[in-house]
Amino acid sequence: MLAIILGSVGILLGLFALIIGVTTTRHIGKRDPVAVPNIWRKVLRIKSRPVHHLSQDSVHTERRERIAFIANPTKDGIAELRELSMRACSIRYMPEPLWYFTTVEDSGEGQARQAISDGADVVVAVGGDGTVRGVAAAVAGTGTAMGILPMGTGNLFARNLDLSLSDAPAQMRTIIEGEEAEIDVVWLYVERHHKAQTERERHLCLVIAGAGFDAEMVAGTDDKLKHRIGWFAYFLAAIKFTSDARMEASVSVDDSKPVMSQMRTVMIANVGNLPGGIKLIPDASVTDGELDVATLDARAGVVGWTDLFGTVMAQGAGVKQPEVFKAYRTSRIDLARGKSVDIEMKQPQKIQVDGEFLGTGTAIRAEVAPGALKMRVPKANKASGPATEAAIVEVYGADGAVSGESPEVSASKVVDA
Ligand SMILES: [Mg+2]
Q: pLDDT digit string (tens) for 241-281?
């Protein structure tokens, strides 16, 4: 009796072990075609997944590009991002990414040029608007693609492109597998008089440049405060300068006859959105091949300033200032659009570009370079056609995670970097 029971248990255990053995072997065989000998594959009827199927989701890209990252080493989390980049490239059988670091003297332009001459196909700015601007200055017009891993306080350009600001794996996917959008940039030529000589400097503008009140705000903003409360600091700084005299300047769009007028500030914009949902130039576009010029004026002290801020807020809500009332109001905004603009100022004025103070100058010429930046943006859902602004918004607005491998997949295939 005991022998029969023991025998049955033995047979059951044996069957159980056989089932586990076969299941495990089949599982391994399906995943790895060389792990199980052919004879066993036939006996156990193991069909391995075709190799291209393996690469369809996680190793989608056909690109075998070398990616260079230009990072601001003072930002937190650089080491983690570097590791993530190594992993993301190695699971796709791409060359090991190159990493360069910005310095106090060079915010990314020199490093980006070095990366291009070292053979990089994509140059990525890892940092705030300063790093982005430095890298873009080197990359613009070269045909080399550019990406952004935003890490600043403002991230104005990244926000205007609707790039993810916090999801690192999604940002990495966009850089490696994203579409390329041809983005306009604006070149500024700033003139200053120095010891009876006129100096002319070239600067890149991706977001917005300005002279007068706008630049006073940037120059007057406490850096520590900016770190703590972000863009609100600029508005606090604005209060200090509201009683200053207005500036006088002539503005000429596309070499038309210059128009002389008084104003608080004149701004040249590549994009239209300012932080805090303020739409300075509601229908500005980074892909229309044109730049936007805005002159802002406020008279009659606080009344005029309140009126001006009200007008800017109303614009954001889609309400435009009617032409007929402009002459009677205490504030006005004039907008123009073109390929270039020349601004000549009666007195030297403070100048800023993308939130960086450039000192004082007497004249600015700005020219748009249409489609000069090949920017990696999130992949559109539809496979056809180049990414348009609408597509960028559509994809990122819908869900943060764009198609491609999930973060778990990359995490499970960690390769020693
Ligand atoms: Mg434009």
A: 666 678 899 999 998 999 898 888 888 989 877 655 566 77
Total domains in the chain come to 3
Report CA(393)–ligand 1 centroid distance (Å).
17
What are the residues whose beta carbon lies below 5 Å from ligand 1 (ion)? 285, 288, 290
Query: What's the gap in Å between 345 CA and the centre of ligand 1?
Result: 24
- Ligand 1 center to 284 CA (angstroms): 5
Separation of CA 246 and ligand 1 centre (Å): 27
Q: Is residue 290 part of a domain?
A: yes
In a domain, 2, yes or no: no
Query: What distance in Å separates the CA atoms of residue 14 and residue 204, rounded to the nearest whole number?
Result: 74
CATH classification of the domain holding 76: 3.40.50.10330
173 and 210 assigned to the same domain: no
Predicted confidence (pLDDT) per residue in 372-390, tens digit: 999 999 887 544 434 444 4
Q: Which residues pair with 375 in a beta bridge?
A: 146, 181
Question: What's the CA gap between 358 and 350, in Å, rounded?
Answer: 7
Looking at the chain, the whole-number percentage of residues with pLDDT higher than 70 is 70
What distance in Å separates the CA atoms of residue 139 and residue 156, rounded to the nearest whole number? 19
d(CA 181, CA 150): 17
Whether pTM > 0.85 for this model: the answer is: no
Domain of 28? Answer: 23-53
- Kindly give the distance from the C-alpha atom of residue 403 to the centroid of ligand 1, in angstroms, as a whole number: 29
